[in-house]
Design a protein that fits this description.
single chain; 17 strands; about 25% helix; about 30% strand
C-alpha cells in the first residue's frame, strides 16, 4: 500500500550563482522559493496501478523521486510498506567506467540486494536484458536502449511490493518494450503496487486502474483512467497547432522515430471513393478504410483505426484485437485490414483517419499514423450535430 499526504517540494529561486553563494556565506538575501509540487494526495492499494500524466515540467518526475525517497519533501509525507524499486532516470545508479556485470552488483547493492542473492539473479538479469554479448563492456559504451534494458531488468529481477517507472518504455526497441509491458502486467496481477509515468497514453490506458494529471505542480485531475485521460487529451488538443492540409487525401509516410528499431510498420492507409478536391469529398455513402502493414517474421499483428472530426473530437476507435477478427495475410510478412462503415451516419463535416499497428497481443504499438487521411462527408439533410443516432418519436 502507498499513501501520499499533501506532498510538496519547493526550491530556492536565486537570480544568479553569485547570489546563491552570497546567501550561503552570509545567511542574507533569502531567495523566494519556487514550488515544483504542491499538495499532492492519493492512496494506492495493493495490486493497483496509477498512471501519472502531464506536460513537461508538470512535476511528474519530482513526485516519483519524492515517493522513491531520492528527494526530501518540503511538506507532506509518504507512507509505504514493503520493498520499493524504481527506474527514475536512464542509467541512474550505474557507474560508466564499470562493466555491465559489475554494475549489476553495484546498483543491486544500492537497492539493498545482498551479493549472494545477486549471484543467484545474475544470469536471469542478463538474459532478460539480452546483453550477453556486451555485459563485460563498460557501461559508458552502451547505447541509451542498452542502459534502460539493463536498468529495467535489474530493477524488476526481484518481486517488489511497490514499483515506480518513469518513462522507461520510451527507450529501446519494440521487442523489448513488449517484454517490459508483459512483466509490468505480471507484477500487477501478482499484487504489486505500481506508479507508471509515461507520455504513451495507450499504455497508461492498458496498464493503469487510475490516472493522475499534474499541471504546473498541482493535481489537475485524479480518478478513473478513461475520465482523466479524456480531460488531458482535450488539454493537449488545445495546445496543438492545426495540422497542415493533406493534398488529395494522400498522406506521406511519417518519418521513422529516432533510434527506433522498426520491427513492424504501416505501409499504406487509404480511404475509398474520394474525389479530387482539397480536402477530398467522400462520394460514397459508405466509408471504407484500408490499412496495409508489414511485420518481420510470422507474427500476426493487429490494426486499429481512429476516426475524428478535423477539430479533434473523437468519433470512434476500433481494432481487430478488440473486435476479435484477424487481418488478412498477404504473404512475405505483409497484412491488410479493411474497415467498412456502411451508410455513414455522420452529419456533414471534415474528418480525419488515424491508423495504429499493434503486436499480436494488442499490447505494444509498433507504428502509428496520426491524422494520415482527411476527407469531407456531406450528409444529405440540413441537420446539424455530430452523428445521426437511431431514434423514433412517440
Amino acid at each position: 500500500m502507498l499513501e501520499v499526504l499533501d506532498l510538496g517540494k519547493s526550491y530556492a529561486a536565486q537570480d544568479s550563482p553569485r547570489a546563491r553563494l552570497k546567501q550561503l556565506l552570509t545567511g542574507r538575501g533569502m531567495a523566494a522559493r519556487k514550488a515544483a509540487l504542491e499538495q499532492v494526495s492519493f492512496t494506492l492499494d495493493r495490486g493497483h496501478c496509477l498512471g501519472v500524466v502531464g506536460d513537461n515540467g508538470a512535476g511528474k518526475s519530482t513526485l516519483l523521486k519524492l515517493i522513491a525517497g531520492t528527494l526530501r519533501p518540503s511538506s507532506g509525507k509518504v507512507r509505504r510498506s514493503g520493498r520499493l524499486t524504481a527506474i527514475l532516470e536512464l542509467g541512474a545508479g550505474f557507474h560508466p567506467e564499470f562493466t555491465g556485470r559489475s554494475n549489476i552488483y553495484f546498483a543491486g547493492a544500492l537497492m539493498g540486494i545482498p551479493a549472494e542473492e545477486m549471484r543467484r539473479l545474475e544470469a536471469d538479469i542478463i538474459a532478460f536484458a539480452e546483453l550477453e554479448a556486451a555485459i563485460d563492456r563498460p557501461v559508458k559504451t552502451y547505447s541509451s536502449g542498452m542502459k534502460v534494458r539493463l536498468a529495467f531488468s535489474l530493477v524488476t529481477s526481484v518481486s517488489p511490493d511497490i514499483l515506480i517507472i518513469d518513462e522507461a518504455l520510451a527507450v529501446g526497441d519494440q521487442h523489448f518494450q513488449k517484454k517490459c509491458v508483459e512483466r509490468i502486467e505480471a507484477f500487477r496481477n501478482a499484487g504489486c503496487t505500481i506508479l507508471f509515468c509515461s507520455h504513451s497514453l495507450y499504455h497508461v490506458r492498458r496498464l493503469c486502474d487510475q490516472a493522475l494529471w499534474l499541471h504546473q505542480g498541482h493535481v489537475r485531475a485524479l480518478g478513473e483512467t478513461q475520465t482523466v485521460l479524456a480531460s488531458y487529451e482535450t488539454h493537449i488538443r488545445a495546445l496543438d497547432k492545426p495540422a497542415g492540409a493533406l493534398q488529395g487525401g494522400i498522406a506521406a509516410e511519417p518519418a521513422p522515430r529516432e533510434g527506433a528499431m522498426r520491427k513492424a510498420c504501416i505501409e499504406a492507409v487509404s480511404v475509398a471513393d474520394l474525389d479530387d478536391a482539397t480536402p477530398p469529398i467522400l462520394k460514397s455513402k459508405d466509408l471504407v478504410i484500408t490499412v496495409t502493414a508489414r511485420v518481420n517474421g510470422d507474427e500476426m499483428p493487429h490494426i486499429a483505426i481512429l476516426l475524428k472530426r478535423a477539430e479533434g473530437i473523437g468519433i470512434m476507435a476500433v481494432g481487430t484485437h478488440t473486435d476479435g477478427v484477424k487481418p488478412v495475410a498477404l504473404g512475405e510478412g505483409r497484412w491488410r485490414s479493411v474497415l467498412h462503415l456502411p451508410d455513414l451516419p455522420l452529419y456533414s463535416g471534415e474528418f480525419t483517419v488515424s491508423a495504429y499497428l499493434f503486436d499480436a497481443d494488442g499490447v505494444l504499438v509498433y507504428d502509428e499514423w496520426p491524422d494520415c487521411q482527411r476527407f469531407v462527408h456531406v450528409f444529405p439533410t440540413l441537420e446539424v450535430g455530430l452523428v445521426r443516432l437511431p431514434h423514433h418519436w412517440s
